[in-house]
Amino acid sequence: YEPDKTTCIVLGRSINYKISSVGAMDGIQFEKSYNSLSVGLVGGTRPDYKDYGFNTKLLQYGGYVSLSSKNETSYTESSIAFMEQMNNMKTDRRFLYFQHSNSLFKDLNFFGTFDIDLYKVQLFVPHNTFDLTSLYLSLRYRVTKKLSLTGSYDQRKSVLFYETYKSLLDSVYQNEKRQSFRLQASYRITQNLSFGIESGYRFQKSDVRKSKNLYGYLSYYQIPGIKASLTISGTYLESAYMNGKVLGSDLTKDFFQGKIQVNIGYRYENYSLPENLTKIVQTITEGGIYCQYTRKLSFAVNYEGTFDHNGRYNRFYVQLRRRF
User: What is the pTM of this model?
Assistant: First the structure.
């Protein structure tokens, strides 16, 4: 709701791009702008950490100040925010968040964020602290209309929630994606054909050996004759705990001017665990259909089947959405 050009009120689940790392929030957000300066207040709950549903126990609130400027050739925007996150009325996390983005030169864009935690628990006793727990920097350069290069540095640590449980597997998985250097390149060969490649490198004192990964894809949009889009991709990973490769393909087609969308996919995964010489080989099939009955009513069904030597696993996801 925008009562005037300088005021905005958002009610429901949404992501505020001025504090994007906070993620989605269920609640109310209020923002008032004064020329290039914006002041905002947010309050509500975090989505449930198990099923992403609504959870009234995960209260959070905070505020932010944002400064931005824009002209015909460049832009810049900076935000600083304070957030208090709770679980069952107990402090789960308290932190400061800073975000900055700008166009340094024509076709060169920078984005960076960092978090400072203000709260911790030691020996069951709460303490105030001032610890840098997250740093992420990204630089993107558009060399030509067809070629783009991106480099990033990720030094984000695992976030500690003192009242919310998170499994060890979730923590390990997030760490494997973080704290690394990454290089990306994407190239549009023709109007409908594009290619991309991404590489990552990480070596920390706690790692037994260096972690390296390589990902590439080839996409063809609107294939002649069938008017479908096809993406073929491959991933190779070497880490202290796992070596493996993933090959996949995904085909998507629209019907009736996009009112019905059908997709099918296939993945082959082959991993080895050097520590105990275990091999894991899986094939995964995917399929889904999305139907837009009316402007406000839609229906979707997705299926995923996993096949390995231990058996077969099936998962279905069904969604019926009604907008008001």
Answer: 0.66
